[in-house]
Amino acid sequence: MSSRRSRASVSEEEINELISRLQTLLPSASRRVGSQASTTKLLKETCSYIKSLHREVDDLSDRLSDLMATMDHNSPGAEIIRSLLR
Prior knowledge:
One of its GO terms (biological process) is regulation of DNA-templated transcription. The protein is mainly α. The protein has helices at residues 12-25, 27-30, 39-70, 76-85. The chain has a single domain, classed as MYOD Basic-Helix-Loop-Helix Domain, subunit B (Irregular).
């Protein structure tokens, strides 16, 4: 979270608001507009979604590494990719 809470407890209303906000961030949950998923199911879906994002990042990183390995390091394409990664 970008801001830390100064108090240790969180009200039920705040938890419900956070769960609602979380539900809007999940692609599978957003298809169920108007349907309240259980908190447990929503948290499991969140974990699954985060894991899939990690796998996607790893895959894209591997593909980029493979691409960079096949390119001439002085080529304009390689320079563009390096500048995008900075």
